[in-house]
Every structure is written in C-alpha cells, then in structure tokens.
Amino acid sequence: MNTFLSSFPDDGPSVNVEALASFRSIKLVPEPPSFSEDAELVPNPDGRVRMRVNRDRPATRQRFSIGHEVGHTLFPGYETQVQCRKPRTRDWHDPSDVLEYLCDVASSEFLLPLERFQADLYAEKVSAERLLLLAGRYNASPEATIRRFIDLADGPTAAVFFRWKHKPADGVRNSMPGQRNLAGIVTRQPQRKLRVEYAVCNVAFASLRYHIPKHKSVTEESVIFQAATTGICMDAGREHLDLGAFSGWFRIHALPIYTQESHVGPEGGSSVIAILQPVP
Fold first, then answer.
1. CB 94: neighbour CB atoms within 10 A?
2. Which residues on adjacent β-strands are paired with residue 83?
3. How many Å separate Cα 223 from the centre of its chain?
4. Which domain holds residue 94?
5. Is the distance from CB of 5 to CB of 29 less than 8 angstroms?
6. pLDDT digit string (tens) for 51-87?
7. Taking a C-beta distance cutoff of 8 angstroms, is the pair 20, 110 a contact?
8. Is residue 129 part of a domain?
C-alpha cells in the first residue's frame, strides 16, 4: 500500500481505488457482474483478471467493492476462478467465508489507510458529526468508517446498527394486513420501531461479554431515537441504555445514515449507527 501511495499520490486522503486495481494488473471492464450484486473478479486465459463492477450501486459501495476484489489478489489462487463478494451472513467454519472477511479488512485498509486516517481521526475530538465528515473526506461509507474507528479505538467500543422494523413476532400479522380475528374484528398492524439489526465490536468490548440482542427497540428519550427522527448527528456523554438483557451506562455517538424508502420510519425516520462505549 505504501508503494502504491508513493507511486500514485492523491490530492487528498482519499485513495483512487481504480488506479489501485490497475496497479495490481486488474482491468476494469464495463460489463456488470454476473455472479454478484456488487463486483467480481473474472479470470482471463492469459492468467490475468478483469473486474466487473455494478455501477448502479452508490459510489462509496462501489469503492469498497473494488477494494474488496483487489484484496483477493493478495491471496493465492485468485486468478483460477471467479471471485465475488458474498452476503453479509457468513459461516466462520467455511474457509472461503474467512477469506471474504479478510478481503473486507483489506478494502478497509485501502480506503482508510492507517496512518492517514489515524492522524485525521485524533486531530479533533471524536463525535458523531466528526465521523460522518471523515467518511465524506475519504469517500467511504459511514459503515466502513465506523468499523475502522472501532478497530482503532483504545477502549471497549461497539457499533450497533438500528433499523425501523417489526419484531419477529409481528411477522404473521404484518404479512396479512386487514386480517380478522375470531371475533370478526379487523386487527391493526403493529407500528414499526427503531430496533437492533446487528452489532460489531472490538476485542476489548467482546471481552466484557456483553450480548446485544437483535430486534430490541430504543426509547424515544434516547439520542439514538432522536438522531433517527431528526436526521441530525447526536452525542451523549453518558446515557443509560436498556435493551433488555443488555443495559448499562454508555457514551453514545449516533449517526443517521442513508435509508431505503422501504425501511424509513413511520414519521420519516432514518436508520442509525450508534457507537457505544461503556462509562462508569
């Protein structure tokens, strides 16, 4: 990476990932991918590879996907078969899924080079707005930027992704709107709430043996809920968060993120990434 940066200097901290692909002898072609929703490497008869990228994806996702595919060239055998990004859900007993994770790590390093990003990160006090600005500065998604921040955080840190949705128990009623019960009364659909989608954490946070349950919702008083409904970055130096089995006092940075129309909240609320750091 340092060799590339010295050979292809950029105007700002953002790395030109398409130039990086060229540096690794990968040819980007205009055809869309055939086996992936994002990007894929396809072997050529001459032993080289070409890359297909879904240009309908947001620019930040395209950049991460390109970085991911470049990551494949760091491991042997990449030129022998089609390499493509897999869904988020992975089996850690499957060596190919472990490889996919390592390629995600490589992409993070390409998009957010350690020395550059670390210097920028700690140049000012960390806040939700600051992290969102850094994502724009590096042309990276908020998700990738926050994952990088978690890796670099000194203390226990987790990122919890919240989305407006029903809990699983609401699934049957939600799939049959207007259903009548035994008394002939039309049942009303339950309202979607801002619930936990998934969480990622660093080693220090995992060592505390916290379990963040999926589908739990936050109260309207939380800065997480306020960030979702206002679309504004929010911070709390100390807030009590109660998600059932998971509760305690935390420093919270809440970032509203791009939300597909089908996932927007009842009052236009957005999805949120909440960074949690335990405090006394």
1. 11
2. 41
3. 20
4. 7-111
5. no
6. 999 999 889 999 999 999 999 999 988 888 888 766 5
7. yes
8. no
Flag whether 200 is in a domain: yes
194 strand-pairing partners: 164
Q: Shortest CA distance to 71 belongs to which of 10, 142, 63?
A: 63
Do residue 100 and residue 199 come from a single domain?
Answer: no
Q: DSSP letters along 166-229, please? A: --GGGHHHHHSTT-B-TTSPBPPPPPPEEEEEEEEE-HHHHTTT----TT-B--TTSHHHHHHH
Contacts of 148 (CB under 8 A, 6+ apart): 108, 112, 117, 140
The per-residue b/e assignment along 1-11, b for 16 or more CB within 10 angstroms, e otherwise, is: eeebeeeeeee
Q: What is the pLDDT of residue 7?
A: 59
Q: Is residue 144 part of a domain?
A: no
The number of folded domains in the chain is: 2
Report the predicted TM-score, pTM, of the whole model to 2 decimal places: 0.81
223, 251 contact by CB (below 8 A): no
Evaluate whether residue 139 is within a structural domain.
Answer: no
In angstroms, the CA 94 to CA 79 distance is: 20
Least Cα distance to 52 among 65, 61, 60, 64 occurs for 65
